[in-house]
Amino acid sequence: MKNNHLLFWHFFQVIDRTLSYERGIDKYRLFLQTLERGYIPYDEELRAFKQFCRILYLQDIRDEARFNQLLDLAVEKEQNLLKQALIAARPVQKPAAAPRDSQLPGPPAPPEEEDEEAPPPAPDIDDDLMDDLLKEEGAAPPEPKTWYYKTPLLYNGIEAVHDEKRFAATTFLHTDEYFSITRRTMVKGWQFLRNKENSVSTQEIDVPATTFKIAQEGLFLEPVYRPGVRNREDALIILADVRGSMTPFHELTNRLIYTARHEGGHPRAPVYYFQNCPLGYVYRKPNLAEPVKIKEALVKANRNVTIAIVISDAGAARGNTNPTRVAERSQQTKHFLDFLYSNCAHVIWLNPVPKHRWAQTAADSIQNEVLQMASVFEQEVYNFQDTLRTIFKQNM
Amino acid sequence: MSDNQIKIRAYPNEDPVLPGVSKWFVTKDSDGRHIIMPAEPECPVCDFAYDAFTGTGNFIPRKDGLGKPLIIKSKPIAPYIPDENLKELVRLVQILQRPVLLKGEPGSGKTQLAKSVAFDWYGPEYQNHFFEWQVKSTSKAVEGLYHFDHVARLRNSQLAKNGNGEDKEDLQQYRSFGPLAKAFLTSTADKPSILLIDEIDKADIDFPNDLLLELDERRFTIPASETGETIEARYPPLIFITSNDERELPEAFLRRCLFMYIKFPSEEQVTRIIQAHIPGLVEKQGSFVAKAIKTFNDLRDKIRNNPSDNKRVSTSELLDWLRAYNYELKDKPDMDLEKDIEVLPLYYQALLKTYASVVQREKELEDKQKKEQEDKLALA
């Protein structure tokens, strides 16, 4: 690209960051190649271009509303450059070969018709003009490094308020993906914690075993089949703190549990609830109904395999640093952890409160007791996945 | 993607009279009008043959005793009317040469798209260029590539040992190719093959990951202990993958795919689809069809907002439902259709697929009747 400006690179980064799509540079390369070779028909509203972006980048229909918003914003930002690139690419394609039987739409609209500011027709764009355009549009803005605790959509909403239509389009989120940790990140994290075990035989022949059997028996009677594998059902047990200081995190907790039990690959993981710290009992329902003895709750746990997941702020949300209270709470929690350790292989503590708020609270004092205490809401999005991946490795 | 290789074929090969419809589906009726009908192509029966020297595969027509090519009339192929998005998708798939992941409500025509592209391009010979891989919950990635018949080999080696079989072993006789390999072997720049991997979400979560290299580089190698062959595609086939969203697909797989969600078609498009699938209904009962589409759309909205009912209805349900009406019309030409649609509709079984939705619909009708009676009383 001219002037070292990577066309639409910004958008590529935005979707990677906001929708947590895995970054694949090959897709961006494909994007540029397709654009440069003039395969994307030009139209005034760039409809074909947008459709192309959707087909190339979008991965999930649930993200579509958000994706379209981001795409509209990005297109608006680099509109002139895009139009230039699309028009510039067209004539190169035309004389290159006979139209074949492709259904390329008719000739592009002559660029003069657009408006006065539009660049002259393109094949060789003069570099000064390109510079001006770049400056004018601020097309490559410096990347903000931190962006947590910000409703992602509103960051350029301030000037948009004047334009009523645009305000309406950009201010209201049509999605509930507003946490810094997305659903997909959670799913991926849970999937690392799956554990396989042998199950019924498959139809796959175990050739070495069969040959061995023939050697033993002297003739071939029937093949030996390989055993199949399936996910262990006792890989996880989830214990979630509810109410009190955890109230603001209920949605997060629910989502963590939901993803673990659905796409995360732990459909039968038992889930129990408690408030502050379990004392003898935990509850089956999030409204603290149907009490179960802790002993009974852990009856299915396997000491060699099961990982206990505790979702709780451990006193860090309120930031209560009263030493007696902290000591009391830590004492109770340690007792509970001892019990967990006598029944489970590991304990992972997921803390919705960022790490810098843990100091002098119960969270601080118990973080050494558990295998890993991870903040789910930390600004580094990959924290959660990394944690679970590490444990998975240790388990192997 | 290298530019001089790419050849873009138009889809669909439109009929000059009826734009947007593949020419294979258009026939003339007795009055000489052009109408859309399901196609029943006469397909030549072919055998797949693999040429190990050139590493290609092709189909050889089978001949009957008199040396004439054997021809079988295929099952009717329902017309497929793609909207603008799908046409653009097929164009982009040829340019970008990536597999495309199709999602959409059940019955929205995900599976049909691949077949329709193949039929549109190759007509009666489409079976030689179209490969279908139906994924099951127990499917393994290797099944799409090849199958090696170990049992036969062991049996033959036993016979050879006892002096009853052949001494020299031809390993290739035990190996047969799966749909993916066939698509690779037959695809050429002039005639790209089309591969459909249907319902990929049914299989284990690792299944898509096992296909990454094959989809990326379009080649694979059979282990040396079996035949040691390397199968490579000369030209990338078009790969359509469908998913019903029963489970999340791995990120690495998604990254390699293009994506399209087939939405419920617009009203105009639906009318065209009905026209194509149920010939004559729209012409004779235009206002009824319009009303039926409206009722259907209302029902879709209701189902979407009803938490106890999660069976979404889509295009195929609408077609089933209207087909049932069309059948009824043959016997009772004077049936008052428009009144009928207000009450619990005839053949509601095609639409309401859970107990909850039937109960709800019945209750709604009851309430409505009650209200009407009350209104009458009030008037009297």
Automatic annotation (TrEMBL), chain A:
Acidic residues compositional bias, start-end: 111-129
Chain segments carrying region Disordered: 92-129
Protein name as catalogued: VWA domain containing CoxE-like protein
Organism: Chitinophaga agrisoli
High-level lineage: Bacteria, Pseudomonadati, Bacteroidota, Chitinophagia, Chitinophagales
Automatic annotation (TrEMBL), chain B:
Protein name: MoxR family ATPase
Domain AAA+ ATPase: 96-268
Organism: Chitinophaga agrisoli
GO molecular function, one term: ATP hydrolysis activity
Pfam family, one: AAA_5
